[in-house]
Request: fold
Amino acid sequence: MREIQKHKHKKASFQNKPIEDQIRNGDWHWSHTLMLVGLFIGFGAVIWLANQTIITLWEISRYLLFACCFLLVIPYRIYRDKLYLERLEVILVNVLGVGPLLIALLLTVNFLVLTERKVVTYEVEKVNVLRSGFSSGNVRLEYKNGGMDDLLSLRTFDVNNYPKALHAKTVTYKMGHGILGYDVVRDIQFN
Reply:
């Protein structure tokens, strides 16, 4: 019997704390606030600023993915000991909090700090009235010589907000070159 007790498996020293120690029993933590701010303000700012910036959806997705994941290389032990975060909170804080807020901050800097301003005018070749789904009050303009063909969001206008878009002959974009290398549309005028 002593031989059996002698070789009894011991709990490994590297195992995590018991489940009771990991749960905060519903207490609010600063990480929850960061996640909510990132989810609503961060993603909202990214969506609005991405529409004002000449950047493709693919590029903004790549940057957002990198910003959400780059702090995950820090060992969990540091998050647990210094920031008092659980495993799931580490992932959620980075994906919902840090990533969107960092990209929103970078897009805001690009939007506010312009190095070179320019005015670009396009001649309207065709006006397409969209009558299906959520875009029933929208107009999509097609420009001569294929101007801005790859940027549908900058050629699609809501008739309620831009009534002159329906009968426009030319469209003038006031743009600036952002400090991070992406052009920003500051104003749109219809003639």
